[in-house]
């Protein structure tokens, strides 16, 4: 055999550069198989003039965009988002539906996991997406700023991992939002001052566009152009401030395949119900031959309460690329108060629950909680006239406690053991004064105020029954839990029956979510494993109810292993 010839420095350099270029071009090959990569984004919070309905206003945006930029990652990736605040308002950003395992400092709700980012300050949100894929979104989490500060968060499966359904021809994101002519900060500020209901929005929007059913909006219409005989994956996100929404496209059906970034057993429907804070992925199969027609997509609210609300309808248009669109068809949406339609839709939702995507439903509960959720009132301050019920102020509560936000962040207070004067750990597990929740309201509807938290040990299996009330009207409440997904094991109308209703709980394939609508004058039961240490917000995703105090927080204690403990905060965590 001949002697080997050592490679020249030039050849070695060429090989090294080629290897490095491969890693840059295909970063997923670095490290272990399917290892995630780090993706960097920069959010400049800035004021931008935006015109809708022939009305121009300056509003808070990210990077001057309304809606905000799309954030895309794969399961297993790390997201590093630098947020720079250039506006007078304080701000924080929540990554809605991200588990934030061991990264609670990046969850985002102001005064819960962080102090807000003040003017000219910066904070870097740094977290890894573990065991999740699907459609989520990000939004401001302070006051009503999420009216304009929001955008999609799309988590693709790991590379070379397929969907549990046929690959679609194209993926399309549609965000269902609201437009206010007024400054939303002024709207909620006035409502909290007077104690009455806030002024409502002027329009609903698809991806920020109100569409042709509104004044002066023909040129601000969302259009979805499709090819015949193709399947499209629609990623629908309800980012509206205060409304659950019906959604339909004329003469087309959907196959529901995912909700809240968890795969669901597929089923067909021509109508979707999406509460505030929920996402729904559907497959839309277009007609085999392009018809000479266009098809309206419509959304309007589901509402059963007693207050005022925006009862308008937003329209977009589905068009076939080769069609003349000579005729336009409109879908028929249910009545605005169609509670049975909502219930029939939600009861069809089931987890996929197969070998690739199994469920992990707690079969028993170590701790059980029963929370009433609904409206109430608080006294009118002296020397002031209030516009709430009987001259009082509107409030909202969980177990009749309207949560007062502290002036410092709960997570810091907990982590550094400085809870004195910030919060107490005595949130009631059950109502202190039971009553006929869905019957005649009690004589005393005044709420208590406080910052009380629930404490549960690490890995506790938790059951929460959330019971709607009829105080000042019965309506649905979309409850969102930060830091966890949960299983919706049961729901019903009227008062929850602890002796009989649990017998009908679905512990086999219940739908897995991060936001669930508590039925109008009814109840919903959820279960989850408390496997994520930290302080976690739970609240109504109607911002008016959130502002009135329909919110509470959980402390999940550290476990024994390092992987079960919350690490210290980052050095740039904002200060109050």
Automatic annotation (TrEMBL):
Binds 4 Cu cations per monomer. This is Laccase. The lineage of its organism: Eukaryota, Viridiplantae, Streptophyta, Embryophyta, Tracheophyta. Pfam families: Cu-oxidase, Cu-oxidase_2, Cu-oxidase_3. Residues 1-25 form the signal peptide. Residues 45-159, 171-322, 438-557 form the Plastocyanin-like domain. Keywords: Apoplast, Copper, Glycoprotein, Lignin degradation, Metal-binding, Oxidoreductase, Repeat, Secreted, Signal. Belongs to the multicopper oxidase family. Its cofactor is Cu cation. The keyword DNA-binding does not apply. It catalyses: 4 hydroquinone + O2 = 4 benzosemiquinone + 2 H2O. It is found in: Secreted, Extracellular space, Apoplast. Its EC number is 1.10.3.2. It comes from the Eukaryota. One of its GO terms (molecular function) is hydroquinone:oxygen oxidoreductase activity. Its main location: secreted. PANTHER family: LACCASE-2 (PTHR11709:SF256), MULTI-COPPER OXIDASE (PTHR11709). Lignin degradation and detoxification of lignin-derived products. GO terms for cellular component: apoplast. It comes from Populus trichocarpa (Western balsam poplar). One of its GO terms (biological process) is lignin catabolic process. It is an enzyme of class 1 (oxidoreductase).
């Amino acid at each position: 055999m001949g002697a080997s010839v050592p490679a020249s420095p030039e050849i070695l350099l060429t090989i090294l550069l080629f290897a490095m270029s491969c890693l840059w071009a295909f970063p997923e090959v670095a490290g272990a198989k399917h290892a995630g990569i780090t993706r960097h984004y920069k959010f400049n919070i800035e004021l931008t003039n935006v015109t809708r309905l022939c009305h121009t206003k300056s509003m808070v945006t990210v990077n001057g965009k309304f809606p905000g930029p799309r954030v895309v990652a794969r399961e297993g990736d790390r997201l590093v988002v630098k947020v720079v605040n250039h506006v007078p308002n304080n701000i924080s950003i929540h990554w809605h539906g991200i588990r934030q395992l061991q990264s609670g400092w990046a969850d985002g709700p102001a005064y819960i996991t962080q102090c807000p980012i003040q003017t000219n300050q910066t904070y870097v949100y740094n977290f890894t997406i573990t065991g999740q894929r699907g459609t989520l979104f990000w939004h401001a989490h302070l006051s009503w700023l999420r009216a304009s500060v929001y955008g999609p968060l799309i988590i693709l499966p790991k590379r070379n991992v397929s969907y549990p359904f046929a690959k679609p021809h194209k993926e399309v994101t549609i965000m269902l939002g609201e437009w206010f002519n007024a400054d939303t900060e002024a709207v909620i500020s006035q409502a909290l001052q007077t104690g009455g209901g806030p002024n409502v929005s002027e329009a609903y929007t698809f991806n920020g566009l109100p569409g042709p059913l509104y004044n002066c909006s023909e040129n601000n219409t969302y259009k979805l152009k499709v090819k015949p005989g193709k399947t499209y994956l629609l990623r629908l996100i309800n980012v509206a401030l205060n409304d659950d929404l019906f959604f339909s496209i004329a003469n087309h059906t959907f196959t529901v395949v995912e909700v809240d970034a968890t795969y669901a057993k597929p089923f067909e429907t021509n109508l979707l119900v999406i509460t505030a804070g929920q996402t729904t992925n559907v497959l839309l199969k277009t007609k085999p031959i392009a018809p000479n027609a266009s098809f309206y997509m419509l959304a309007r609210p589901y509402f059963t309460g007693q207050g005022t609300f925006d009862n308008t309808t937003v329209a977009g248009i589905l068009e076939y690329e080769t069609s003349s669109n000579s005729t336009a068809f409109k879908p028929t949406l249910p009545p605005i108060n169609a509670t049975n339609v909502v219930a029939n839709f939600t009861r069809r939702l089931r987890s996929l629950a197969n070998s690739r995507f199994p469920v992990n439903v707690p079969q028993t509960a170590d701790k059980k909680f029963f929370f009433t959720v609904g409206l109430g009132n608080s006294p009118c301050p002296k020397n002031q006239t209030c516009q709430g019920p009987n001259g009082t102020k509107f409030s909202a509560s969980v177990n009749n406690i309207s949560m007062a936000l502290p002036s410092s962040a709960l997570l810091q207070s907990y982590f550094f053991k400085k809870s004195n004067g910030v919060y107490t750990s005595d949130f009631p597990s059950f109502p202190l004064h039971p009553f006929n929740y869905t019957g005649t309201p009690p004589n005393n509807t005044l709420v208590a105020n406080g910052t009380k938290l629930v404490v549960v040990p690490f890995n506790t299996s938790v059951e929460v029954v959330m019971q709607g009330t009829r105080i000042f009207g019965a309506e649905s409440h979309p409850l969102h839990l930060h830091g966890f997904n949960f299983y919706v094991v049961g729901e019903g109308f009227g008062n929850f029956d602890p002796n009989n209703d649990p017998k009908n709980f679905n512990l086999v394939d219940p739908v897995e979510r991060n936001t669930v609508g508590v039925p109008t004058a009814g109840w919903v039961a959820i279960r989850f494993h408390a496997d994520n240490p930290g302080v976690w917000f739970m609240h109504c995703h109607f911002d008016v109810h959130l502002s009135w105090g329909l919110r509470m927080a959980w402390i999940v204690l550290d476990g024994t292993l390092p992987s079960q403990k919350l690490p210290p905060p980052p050095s740039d965590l904002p200060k109050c």
